[in-house]
Automatic annotation (TrEMBL):
It is found in: Cytoplasm. GO terms for biological process: cytosolic ribosome assembly; negative regulation of ribosome biogenesis; negative regulation of translation. Functions as a ribosomal silencing factor. Interacts with ribosomal protein uL14 (rplN), blocking formation of intersubunit bridge B8. Prevents association of the 30S and 50S ribosomal subunits and the formation of functional ribosomes, thus repressing translation. Belongs to the Iojap/RsfS family. One of its GO terms (molecular function) is ribosomal large subunit binding. Keywords: Cytoplasm, Repressor, Translation regulation. The lineage of its organism: Bacteria, Bacillati, Actinomycetota, Actinomycetes, Bifidobacteriales. HAMAP family: Iojap_RsfS. The keyword tRNA-binding does not apply. This is Ribosomal silencing factor RsfS. InterPro entries: Iojap/RsfS/C7orf30 (IPR004394), NT_sf (IPR043519). Interacts with ribosomal protein uL14 (rplN). GO terms for cellular component: cytoplasm. It comes from the Bacteria.
Amino acid sequence: MPALQKSIDAVRVAAKAADEGKATDIVAFDVSEPLAITDVFMVASGDNERHVLAIADGIERRLHTELGLSPRSREGLEEAQWILLDYADFIIHIMHQRARQFYDLERLWKDCVEVDLGLGRDSSVDRQPVGTDGVSESESAV
């Protein structure tokens, strides 16, 4: 059974808040089939601990303001390397870039369907346009 639409809609609100907070590599996966305890995992990255905290705070405020939602639990606030916001039907992971590379959550959920976050671009790729030859514009300028 695929993720509930209300979970997808809430994750889209969270993704928009993360994007406005300058999070990078924002992706979400429908994990309802393999897990059954939640519908969607969203993952976003921050550049440093303060940025990770700010992204998490922005997501929490937006979900509370727009949808009246509060997380059931929050973990990782002290170290701010990996903050987990558990909303039961969906889980938000905000990770420091180094932690994200180390744990590579996308590898774990690669067989799950990626959720369209409605951000108007492929948010799972760093924001460097790629030319028709497959080389990013910054690489071709070197």
